[in-house]
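so my prof wants the structure for this chain in the tokens format not the other one, which i didnt know existed until like an hour ago. anyway here's the sequence
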Amino acid sequence: MIDLKSFSPEWLAEKRKKYNRDPGLMENMIYALYLLEQLKLSGLDFIFKGGTSLVLMLNEPQRFSVDIDIIVRHDMIKEELEFHLEKIVGASNFTGMRIDERRSYKQGIPKAHYAFSFQSNVPAKTQKGEVLAQPQKEILLDVLFAENHYPVIVERPVQTEWLVVYGDNVMVKTPDICSIAGDKLTAFAPNTTGVPFHREGINNKGEAIKSEMFMEIIKQAFDVGCLFDLIAILETFKKSYRATAEGEIKYRPERGIKSVDDVLNDTIQTALIVARNTAQVSAEDRVVYGYFTKGIQQFGHYVYTANFRIEQAQVAIAKAAYLASIVLTDAADFEKFDDKKPIAEYMIVHPDYNFLNKQLKFVAKGEALFYWNRTLALIGV
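here's what i got, hopefully its the right format
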């Protein structure tokens, strides 16, 4: 179980010394994992998914993630869910819970959104410049009411280097690596099932607002890039992708998505914009490329140690395009980059795409170019 020492200023200082990152961000992730453990201890039956689940899945997680995504039974009613959530507030370090009424329990959208508040040990400034020694902060919980669509479910301990633990591990259900990779790829399709470039909403004053989601899109691509090298069973990945995409299409009728193939082509065409770098062919694509460069700059704050620049994004996004082409063509196997292979073997000859040679041949020793070569070969270019 998670020891409350995990929230102490001393523990946060130790982690800050190692990673030189924002202690507030570290604390948020620790509290997110604490919320996960409390959900399990409340007796709620759920599957843990989303970006934070990778902190438990990967031997070497590489980015911070600060919210919790779960799936519960499709027929679970609000009162049953909140029975478990209210237990958490009464038996943990969380000081309160609120529901996002505007986004929860809406007709045709089987989702609910909650926030759990806690007293932070990381000082923060108010808008007036006042310093709060222990400000109130929140961890978000996103709930999907649905039947399990993942081909493979495993149990994992709530244990990571970010936590001080004692006694027996608390175990939670998650998709396996191949299943979560399929899920994650559907989120990198901003014009169809994925995180959109902008999200419309209403603020506390009742005013319509449009939020930029550029960094969230980059997070999805980054996660796909990390998972790519761990995919062992391609059929599990493809099955998970199609099941997730079909569910998202059903939940989003307003987007007018006609088929899973539309989603796959969205991923490939969006990835191509990033691959072009500054050599965009239209004003619209230049705007979209600007979204990505802004998202990449913002996202660097969330990476544990390494720098994250356009070159790293191009590799991750090339992997996403390659995986999309695998699902699109139902390919039976796939290749992984080997830097010992001469770059001449995967230069692109098609006149409509050979510009990628110039843009990518020096990116990560040709890795991004390799995956684009394989992508174009699969889709028949």
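also thought this was worth mentioning. The chain is about 45% helix and 15% strand.
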